[in-house]
Design brief:
mainly alpha
């Protein structure tokens, strides 16, 4: 497979993994639990751990696909930040998803220019 073909293959896998991690692997409870504006467990602040756990799932997928701990770390931080801003109402659902997909394209672009 050509280098371009390998990069497109990686992009496809990253996008597919994102869909898997953001929909069936997230579920309704985690989707709500990661939201700092909701109080799902009275008297307990659960959103930070829920949000970080969700971001970790995404980072693990990026690490598995790319083999890069640096890209996994980038995924962890950007995914958590984007979701946090969405939960606070600063991003729309579509805006959130577009930013996540742009990150996947950026990870592939970074793979393309690595030495």
């Amino acid at each position: 497979m050509s280098e371009y073909g390998e990069l497109m293959h990686t992009l496809f896998l990253l996008v597919a993994a994102h869909a898997l991690c953001d929909y069936p692997l997230q579920g309704d409870w985690l989707s709500k639990a990661k939201n700092p504006t909701l109080d799902l467990v009275a008297g307990e602040m659960i959103w930070p751990l829920a949000l970080l756990s969700h971001a970790t799932i995404h980072a693990a997928a990026v690490l598995f696909i790319t083999g890069s701990p640096w890209l996994a770390a980038c995924e962890f931080f950007t995914h958590a930040l984007i979701d946090y801003e969405k939960c606070r109402g600063l991003l729309t659902y579509n805006g959130d998803q577009i930013l996540h997909l742009l990150c996947k394209a950026l990870w592939v672009a970074l793979l393309a220019v690595r030495p």
